[in-house]
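fold description:
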Amino acid sequence: MSVQTVTLYPMFLYAWACLWLMAPVPMMPTRSMMTSLEPMKPLGYQWPQRAGAAQPGAVHASVTAQWYPWSMLRSRLVWIPVLSAIAALLPLRAQQEMVRRHRPMPKAGDYLVLKADLHMHTVFSDGQVWPTTRVMEAWREDLDVIAITDHDDYRPNEKDVSMDLSRPYEIARPIAEGLGIVIVPGVEITKGDIHFNALFIRDHNAFRGKELITALTEAKKQGAFSFWNHPGWKGKAEWWPVIATAYSDRLFQGIELLNGPVYYAEARQWIGQYGLTVMGNSDIHNASLPEDPRTVNLVLAKERSVEGVREALHAGRTIAWDGGRRLIGRREWLETLVRTYLQAPREVRFTPGFWYNGLALRNDSALTFELKPVEAPRWMEALSTVVPPRSTTVVQLRLNRDAPKTPARVTVRMEVSNTLVTETGGPLVLPFEFELIP
């Protein structure tokens, strides 16, 4: 459905309602009505007469369709201002819902950076919306990849919707493909308090009623990429025996460190220890509001396709982004992203007395970077700053009397404070090198 169609549809309803209010209806003229219309006779107004009527003006038993007289229309016309107000607001609301909030992610090195939410629910399990709504929300929020992952063994709406878990994917897929969104088939394997998402599956219904290890084994047979969801959602995250068994049998490849706004710090160490892929998803159940941040994966893919996403997940090329400022991932991929997105000049000219002396950093992405200098030459002071999305921001530099009077090669090490490196648990620290020209 186009934006124009969505915008004009309420206007069609409004026009139809107005015509209905004014439309002729079957009615029987009474003597009082005839009398009230006597003054209109000079204007040529007459009640239609049935053929063969005995007397002009007589009351007939037949029913004739006529426009309402003013006295009868008055009670209905009061609704027109109300309908007008509704008609004015509906297109505005429709336009708001159909506005796409662009969040650009330029290529990082050799990779496309795809925004992927791979954990969401619909009415086919415990979600509150229809599958096509999830697609429209994803389009509005500028996502590149989605997966609808309804629960296999938790179906509170089973009396009202199909028990076939392939239906959400089948319903959403045509709309997603039409909007250019990559949609991945998936399901949430739900066994007690331990949940796994299985992506790229072929049979959504093959996991129902099975024990966890049996279900994950079935997912592996189908070529799935599986990851452990919200590992500490009910108490502290632990490497339970059943998790150890699943890992030793190579039944899962990732772990969800970010689930919505919640970060599971206890699970961070397992990323490096077991070579797991970092995952971050919304796990959304209710409708998504445009102003709410959405946690997604930044997938560094070789191509924009289902196979491209599959390859990147298995290779571990992901960063979890909370939709605001926080970025969590392996050092290699965080560094690739930051170095690509923060473009620094090779030369910095310093003019004494001007407040804007400094290192101008350009950011063409939708990400925010919080920078805190941690090391600089002893004769230089670099100030902390925030580089907002799609902007150029100056890291202010102050020089003291010991600063060189001739061009000098300078290195300033800066902490990207809103990042978290899974190997260390601390922020990413990068050197920025430039030539300072006094």
Remarks:
- Residues 3-22 form the longest helix (20 residues).
- The chain has a mean pLDDT of 86.
- The chain has three domains: 3-97, 112-324, 340-437.
- The first strand starts at residue 25 and ends at 27.
